[in-house]
Amino acid sequence: MGCGHKDDKASLASSQIASFSHQPHQPPSTPASKEVWKKGGRMFSILLAVHLALLACTLVSSGAFEKIAVHDYDVFFLLTVMMLIVIVWIIFYVASTSRCPGAILCKDSHAGPIWLRGGLVLFGIFSLVMDVFKIGYYSSFYSCLSAIKIIYPIVQAIFVVVQTYFLWISAKDCVHVHLNVTRCGLMLTLTTNLAVWMSAVTDESVHKAHSKLKKNVTEEIFRWLMKAGMRSSAEECNCNSQICQIFKNGYFWLYPFNIEYSLFASAMVYVMWKNVGRFIDHHSHHIHRLKFRLFRRTFFVGIVLGLILLVSGLGVLILYEVQVNSSTESSKKSQALTMYYVFNIVCLGLMSLVCIGGSVIYRFDKRDMDRHKNPTRTLDVALLMGAALGQYAISYYSIVAIVASTPRDAVSALNLTYALLMIAQHTFQNIFIIEGLHRQPPKEDHKHDSHQKDVYGLTFVNINAVSLRMPDSGGTLTTSAASGTEAIHPSDLVQSLTAPKKMNWRRKVLREISMFLLLSNIILWIMPAFGARPQFDNDTELNFYGDSMWPAIVDICLPFGIFYRMHAVASLLEVYIMS
To answer: Which of 41, 136, 283, 331 has the most CB atoms lying inside 10 A of its own CB?
Structure first.
């Protein structure tokens, strides 16, 4: 498929470029028939993704149980084939599609911001370390394993490297050649990342369930595992050596990073898919070059409070893991749950109040709303609202179980308060983030300062003259110093002296709020991602819903809640920079 054989829409690229030159102030227009084919190409790629996702979901869920004749190496084989196909397509895109004449006529300045690509690289590095640990673990007893279990982490490491490079250089592309092939390739990439995510979440859940089983935490979990017949991660081989145990524990601890990498990559690939065949009117699509200034124009209050919560949360996590997993005494577990709930209640309460305060400040913000088409922002809002449903579900299930159960103790009261605050904090935080994402970024500081300096000089020198020369009817002032600029009203001259200070004060407070929420969401992501999951350690919900229903609810909903926190971190970083 060469560059000369383009889709019918791409064949009009030269004529549309010519129309840009003749009509620079009008967005490019495309015939109605082309929009119909665009929707048809999108529909075909969506159908491909849906079928592959359902197939992968079926194999992944079936491979987690012993009684179903689907083995984990069947899942690894499917994922390996999908990753190899994606690698081949990415090489084709980078080497052929992106180098065709007229392939990339414009770029989406909002897609793939540097902090999102930086997070992708960070999670990709940890994913590579996880693959190294996996290779070392499976190589410890390769004689009794299928070869696909060793091939899979090798292919996954290559996939992570190739995909990270691809998204780093191409995340902003609006492709106009090979449209249908590109759409299908991007949807295949998206589906592959989601399949890897489902496999990682399932494997991690099975591992944690077996860890609870071995430590005999509760009889309910033991009966649930025995009845479900959940498959062990390595049921046929024994890992007895010290180096094998290190590899095994290491790659399971790194699973959260691989999970977040897959979701970050999926979000970036989706935006690329939306931008295929898209023309951007640069006269309405403003490009804002915002600088990330972490330690300028800030009171440091949000950073300090956020760091205090972050360090305190790490201490609570360590104590929780030690007391719950290393001790079989019920009193120790009750103390650990009390400590966990108290910390989270304080953290969620502060975050809710701060979000309410930030939303109130936005009511007085004079910046205009950004109403331009922005697929990245639309996806951010959809992911925030959708991922929050997972934690909403867990909280409402907990509320019903606690209210309907008897007797009630102090831990149950704390659990109820925790569930209610979790719902409130998610709601208020989503409102604050969505408000920030839809605000126009501030003007450049140097332009703003120079303009205020000129106005100040004009006001200081000519303020008396203005008051003498202006008629009583109240008109506008036009002087030689302001020639070539807009007419200035006398009242605006006085307001211009105080407006910058008010704006800077609001911007500073919004930055403090964003940084505090960012650090708080990091610790609330770390705690459940690395083992602090009171849903499995609190007996109220388990006794109320049964030893089969409640673990299934948590296993399905909790990954969305964990993803919500990390996505909120990325969105809050964008809000911080936009403030």
So the answer is: 41
| Residues 191-240 pLDDT 10s | 999 999 999 888 877 776 666 655 544 445 445 444 444 444 444 567 77
The answer to whether 155 touches 80, Cβ cutoff 8 Å, is yes
Give one DSSP letter per residue of 257-321, joined into a string. HHHHHHHHHHHHHHHHHHHTT----TTTS--------SSSS--SHHHHHHHHHHHHHHHHHHHHH
Q: What is the DSSP string of 23-40?
A: -TTS-----HHHHHHHHH
The answer to whether the predicted template modeling score (pTM) of the entire model surpasses 0.90 is no
Q: At what angle do helices 72-95 and 148-170 cross, to 10 degrees?
A: 30
498-526 core/surface letters (b: 16 or more CB in 10 A; e: else): eeeeebeebbbbbbbbbbbbbbbbbbbbb
Q: What is the 3-state secondary structure (H, E, C) of 170-210?
A: HCCEEECCCHHHHHHHHHHHHHHHHHHHHHHHHHHHHHHHH
Q: Which tokens in the block code for residue 92?
A: 């084709």
Q: Which two tokens stand for residue 508?
A: 């500073």
Give DSSP secondary structure letters for 37-87: HHHHHHHHHHHHHHHHHHHHHHHHHHTTBSSSS--HHHHHHHHHHHHHHHH
Relative to beta strand 104-107, strand 173-175 is: antiparallel
Quote the percentage of the chain above a pLDDT of 90.
Answer: 29
Provide the 3-class DSSP secondary structure of residue 112: coil
CB neighbourhood size of 96 (10 A) = 16
Provide the b/e sequence for 227-251 (b: ≥16 CB within 10 Å): ebebbeebeebebeeeebeebbebb
471 by Cβ neighbours in 10 Å (0-12 / 13-18 / 19+) ranks as: exposed
Cis-peptide into 407, omega within 30 deg: yes
Within 13 A of 255's CA, how many CA atoms are on the CB side?
24
DSSP-assigned beta bridge partners for residue 477: 488
